[in-house]
Specification:
Elements (H helix, E strand, L loop, with lengths): L14 H4 L12 H13 L3 H13 L4 H21 L5 H15 L13 E6 L7 H12 L3 E6 L4 H11 L3 E5 L6 H13 L4 E4 L8 H5 L4 E2 L3 H10 L22 H7 L1 H15 L8 H24 L2 H17 L8 H10 L4 H15 L3
Length: 369
């Protein structure tokens, strides 16, 4: 299939790579200059210089929220773009993300005399990309909220236990990868079941928040400022009773999502094996190339099942378009994805929704220039 694949299991496609929607492009006119300086520091993995940039920006009069969202957030956005364009390695990107996380801690937060309320901020289970949630948590602290920031990949049972123990006026859940939507749905409904409203955000929920609405979240925000503004505007709506949530996703009654998910490993193994049989050139792949090809297929299956869950072909075609761009930047023809789609469709002949998604993906790829 490919000899230079999309990111592997430790390097999943996500907003830290494609440019997270961390903050809108407005604010202090000097923010862009400081963002350029910070990017130069993180690009060379120079943590000391990065800390100096934040100190300098504060001294120049930028407020902490502007630095948080329009300097650090903007730099993380650029890191994602540079990785996708193959101008930064995985190691470079990881170093940059770690430094950005470190410099966030250097921003001063003044403890208010009274808090506006209590908010829990967490990433859904299996979601590794924590920086967007961290930016939201720090923004809320700056605005005067008491924030419990739980970090990356929080199992739903532990999230519920935490809320029972500490209480919260609202829970903010973050997810970057659309493959986390089924787990996000479980977390949303579990939190709502104990009477706490849920706001969600992150690219997993769609640029327009369509999957937040589909999964029954009480609110959605496209970025940290909008989330903070929404919480400041008044309490979130009371969650619906559990019996009203039961029919949010009626298409799941066909069992395609469950059956395809249960057979995902078999699908990946069989597809890789058949690729080897149909494309003799794969016999000359080295171990890394074979591993990357298997990872490509695994990612395709993961996003296929997520699209089945929400019944939206745009989720699947969007992932394929992003992957095609990443492969092209690395000198791999995007049409190399097509044989994998064909082989998956052969195995899923009894699954009409899955076949429609694969057909949509094939059409999207062949329509690319």
């Amino acid at each position: 299939m490919t000899n230079a694949a999309a990111p592997g299991l430790d390097d999943e496609p996500g907003p830290h790579r494609i440019g997270a929607r961390l903050a809108p492009a407005f604010g202090h006119e000097q923010a862009g200059e400081w963002a350029d300086k910070l990017f130069a520091a993180v690009r060379t993995a120079d943590e000391y210089s990065a800390l100096d940039v934040v100190t300098g920006a504060l001294g120049a009069g930028l407020d902490a929220e502007t630095i948080l969202l329009e300097v650090i957030g903007a730099v993380q956005h650029k890191v994602g773009i540079e990785w996708a364009a193959d101008r930064m390695s995985v190691a470079d990107e990881h170093a940059a993300t770690a430094i950005n996380d470190r410099v966030i801690a250097a921003l001063p937060v003044q403890r208010p005399g009274t808090f506006l309320g209590k908010v829990t901020v967490a990433c859904v289970d299996k979601e590794w990309h924590a920086l967007p949630a961290r930016l939201l948590a720090e923004t809320l602290r700056l605005r005067g909220w008491q924030v419990a920031y739980l970090g990356a990949q929080v199992p739903t049972a532990h999230l519920i236990s935490h809320i029972h123990r500490t209480g919260a006026d609202a829970v903010c859940l973050s997810a970057a990868l659309s493959t986390r939507l089924p787990l996000a749905h479980a977390a949303i409904t579990a939190v709502q079941a104990i009477g706490t409203p849920v706001m969600v955000g992150g690219l997993a929920f769609g640029a327009d928040g369509r999957y937040a609405r589909r999964l029954g979240a009480d609110a959605w925000a496209p970025e940290a400022r909008a989330a903070a503004d929404r919480l400041a505007a008044g309490p979130l709506p009371e969650p619906r009773p559990p019996h009203q949530m039961a029919d949010d996703l009626p298409h799941l009654a066909d069992q395609e999502y469950i059956l395809v998910t249960q057979s995902s490993r078999t699908l990946v193994r069989a597809t890789v094996q058949r690729l080897r049989e149909r494309f003799p050139a794969m016999a000359h792949y080295d171990d890394d190339q074979r591993e990357r090809t298997a990872e490509d297929i695994a990612h395709i299956v993961d996003f296929l099942t997520a699209a089945l869950y929400v019944d939206d072909p745009d989720l699947f075609t969007g992932f394929l378009a992003w992957t095609a761009g990443v492969l092209t930047a690395r000198g791999v023809p995007d049409r190399s994805l097509l044989p994998g789609l064909d082989l998956l469709e052969e195995q899923l002949r009894d699954f009409p929704r899955a076949r429609r998604l694969l057909d949509a993906g094939r059409t999207a790829l062949t329509a690319r220039p």
